[in-house]
Design a protein that fits this description.
Layout lengths: L14 H9 L1 E2 L2 E2 L9 H14 L10 E7 L2 E7 L4 E3 L9 H7 L8 H8 L45 H5 L1
Antiparallel strand pairs: 1-2, 3-4, 4-5
């Protein structure tokens, strides 16, 4: 229940991650995962094509200095070179600290909101790797004979925590 978060399954709210993994699915198979054909860059390209078809302008390698506000609403950006780009809406994919602490002045945001942004913790103990093996792993806790797949081979394998008590530590 703790994939991608630095918390124990015994902490309130941590069950969401497990719920997300279980409720997800691909091609009608609950709990399964899929990969984007052409890699994640293909997904970005698809989103960019769709956005530009609806009038969005995308600028790459263009550094933003600040978000421009009009009556408290984001209505554009000022680039490092001084150019101002106005828009009905802006979209940022920078971390919240960058968006709200670098691109905006603290005085433009509610004090409680600033406090919550400052308290955000981006640390995570997760490292995901996909590997190709020449044979199935044979675990001492669930041995299988003759390289035959068992039920435990048909899911994500999490190493390093054998019990939920160990995850909680």
């Amino acid at each position: 229940a703790v994939v991608g978060v630095m918390t124990s399954p015994e902490i309130s709210g941590s069950g969401y991650v497990l719920f997300h993994h279980i409720m997800g699915g691909a091609e009608g198979i609950p709990g399964s995962w899929a990969y984007v054909e052409g890699g994640m860059g293909a997904l970005s390209d698809c989103i960019a094509r769709s956005a530009t078809e609806y009038g969005a302008q995308i600028r790459c390698s263009t550094e933003v200095k600040k978000i421009l506000l009009v009556k408290g609403e984001a209505r554009g950006v000022q680039l490092v070179d001084g150019t101002e780009l106005r828009a009905k809406q802006i979209i940022t994919n920078t971390p919240m600290h960058t968006t709200f602490e670098k691109f905006l002045d603290k005085e433009d945001l509610p004090q409680e909101f600033n406090r919550r942004v400052e308290g955000l913790d981006y640390k995570s103990p997760v490292c995901k790797i996909n590997v190709a093996l020449d044979h199935l792993p044979n675990f001492t806790s669930q041995p299988t004979a003759h390289n035959v797949a068992g039920p435990h081979h048909q899911a994500t394998i999490h190493l390093g925590s054998e019990t939920s008590d160990q995850i909680h530590q």
